[in-house]
DNA sequence: GTCTATATACGGATAGAC
DNA sequence: GTCTATCCGTATATAGAC
């Protein structure tokens, strides 16, 4: 089960070319707005070949979708379950990790969240969220800190929401943020880099509130 | 206290019935996945009538989309440009306002942000973001506070991103959050109500960081 | 204004040659 | 495995009766 970065398609097999193209188009436009013809063109192959390899648009989509979500979740579980790092270090690692990831794949969260809107039950269950997040070392550390009175006794999900919101939201809302801030792409990315430094500090300040 | 878009609207004209139905379906499923037949059925009218009033699916969508975005932006401009309130009060008002709005229309942000992904230029320009946000009293107060050294000298957009991220993100990611937190709908809404109290405090704590 | 019936286009999928 | 040509369901849009 080796993992290959999506930006370096070493595997030039037809199957992988199609998957790579599908990932690009699906992520940009979503399932319904994507035409299999566009995927075929992007992959530089014929439409019939797509069905030869993947049987149907929907089956191809399911594969891409599952992999995308695993990218999103899996990539962080290492950070979350590293028993050698403190809560503070985990937050810094998570911020760095996600901000780099989203810089490379800015469309990923909106894609995943949009497609999740309807079919919540089925797909989510395949991600093993329970083991990877609910029972993570990260969450245990939060709960312990609450018990010891080092952070206020609120639902840990608030911290997750704040952290993820501050990291992910700017990418999800980038068109409107660029517009109101009158930023071009590089200025936007510069702000995102700044956030690597700021977000951990902000989170820490929030956690000290009583 | 849930608002139901399908309730009989005050304006019972056919045109308004179609628009109301369109708002519901488009917001749930997005443009591409929506079928005009579904809108007609939801509106309790015939498919042909939809084209009689709005010429095409796309023209109908453009109207709904513009109104949705205006809902989202316009509703806040009153708060942002109230010259009688302090920065702190504006933040509290904004949090209350948006959390109530999103509780009633939880699908709105994902809809708007998804559909904005591709056509950024055109639609955004119609919202008068410049007058309503860029030149708002809210932003002026932030800039003044920075000059007076009361908050750190960072790009004001960081505060906007943090504030909006903390407010909006939980609704955008609600399926996954409910799953990892093992929350049902009412428990989720309970958390959202708690955030009315917490977010202003958190933001204030963040702003004091140097 | 509102309906039924239909034209037209588009997109997913397959047949069959190579 | 890969292509060209084509089928066929589905969805938008219109024609025309009432």
Number of helical stretches of at least 4 residues of chain A: 12
Q: What is the CATH topology classification name of the largest domain in chain A?
A: Tetracycline Repressor, domain 2
Mean pLDDT of chain A: 92
Which two chains touch over the largest interface? A-B, 53 and 53 residues
Helix content of chain A: over 70%
Question: Which percent range describes the beta-strand content of chain A?
Answer: under 5%
User: Could you tell me the radius of gyration of chain A in angstroms?
Assistant: 19 Å
In CATH, the homologous superfamily of the largest domain in chain A goes by the name Tetracycline Repressor, domain 2
Following the backbone from N to C, one meets helices and strands of chain A in this order, namely: HHHHHHHHHHHH
Q: Tell me the major beta sheet of chain A.
A: none
Your description of this structure?
Two copies of one chain form a homodimer. Chain A has two domains: 1-55, Arc Repressor Mutant, subunit A (Orthogonal Bundle); 62-207, Tetracycline Repressor, domain 2 (Orthogonal Bundle), CATH 1.10.357.10. In chain A, 74% of the residues lie in helices and 0% in strands. Chain A contains twelve helices and no strands. Chain A has helices at residues 14-29, 36-43, 47-54, 57-80, 87-104, 108-116, 120-125, 129-134, 137-147, 156-172, 174-181, 185-208. Chain A is globular. Chains A and B meet through helix 6, helix 8, helix 10, helix 11 and helix 12 of A and helix 6, helix 8, helix 10, helix 11 and helix 12 of B. The structure holds a DNA duplex (18 and 18 nucleotides).
